[in-house]
Design brief:
Layout: H1 12-72, E1 79-84, E2 87-94, E3 97-104, E4 107-114, E5 122-125, E6 130-132, E7 137-139, E8 141-145, E9 151-160, E10 167-175, E11 180-184, E12 188-189, E13 193-201, E14 206-209, E15 212-214, E16 231-237, E17 242-247
Length: 257
């Protein structure tokens, strides 16, 4: 049977050494325990920060999608501070782009996204283009606004092949309700840049260039543009963007063509 030696009976130098070892061991265990608690706490903080960062990122993506949706609906993409789940976002416009700022907890995410130009927001359809009044008036060029708060038609160039010195003297841009946006009598040669009175298209709908009227030549009358091989139309917009199309005339459904 092993012999039990009471601690009080150990010699002083032996007892002192043993007590020191015990104190050291307890201190070591205490440090290890504190370190473990600290590591767990730090790990929890890191995980929380990562979750907040992810939430802020997803909120930012949602903010971008919402801003672009508004823009394509013809509304301003700017959005005041909006709560979304555990985060929030707001959208500010900076010229041709938007800045989306999102927050979740201590995390913040910023993204800048370029907006479509006014040229991008306008579809030019010449598939129905033909002439009226025995070839003296070009009509049925459709312009469809599909995004942005407004598209401003600023300038245009119209040219045609087999140029015989013809010129046109009227341009009319109308909405589907036939409200006049632009109607003035310039005298313009083929390929010449004309500075239009700004035609502002604010609603997402169809507009049309419906009366490009060719100038009457004295002693000859108005030219017959039905014999022209092809046309080129280039439109310039208020933000400096432009769009160009080439087309030939479609068959006219009316006898007056």
């Amino acid at each position: 049977m092993p012999k039990v030696i009471p601690l009080l009976l150990i010699k002083s130098e032996e007892r002192g050494g043993s007590l020191l070892a015990i104190v050291f061991l307890l201190s070591l265990l205490s440090i290890m325990g504190w370190t473990l608690v600290s590591l767990v706490s730090t790990n929890q903080t890191v995980r929380t920060d990562l979750i907040s960062q992810d939430q802020a990122t997803f909120t930012n993506l949602a903010g971008i999608e919402y801003a672009l949706q508004r823009f394509y609906e013809g509304r301003s993409p700017e959005v005041a501070e909006t709560i979304l789940g555990r985060g929030s976002f707001h959208v500010e416009r900076d010229g041709s782009s938007v800045m989306v700022t999102s927050r979740s907890g201590p995390s913040q995410v910023l993204h800048s996204v370029s907006l479509p130009t006014q040229a991008d927001c306008l579809l030019i359809d010449t598939s129905e283009s033909h002439t009226h009044d025995r070839g003296s008036e070009l009509a049925r060029i459709w312009l469809t606004k599909r995004c942005g708060e407004e598209v401003v038609l600023d300038k245009m160039v119209l040219s045609w092949e087999s140029d015989g010195g013809e010129s046109y003297e009227k341009v009319r841009l109308s909405s589907i309700s036939d409200s006049r946006l632009y109607d003035a009598p310039p005298v313009i040669q083929s390929g010449e840049l004309v500075d239009l009175i700004d035609g502002r298209m604010r609603r997402n709908q169809r507009y049309k260039l419906k009366e490009i009227r060719y100038r009457k030549v004295e002693g000859v009358g108005r030219p017959d543009m039905r014999q022209k091989d092809s046309f080129r139309l280039k439109l310039f917009f208020g933000d400096g963007s432009s769009q160009e199309v080439h087309f030939t005339l479609a068959a006219c459904p009316h006898s007056s063509c």
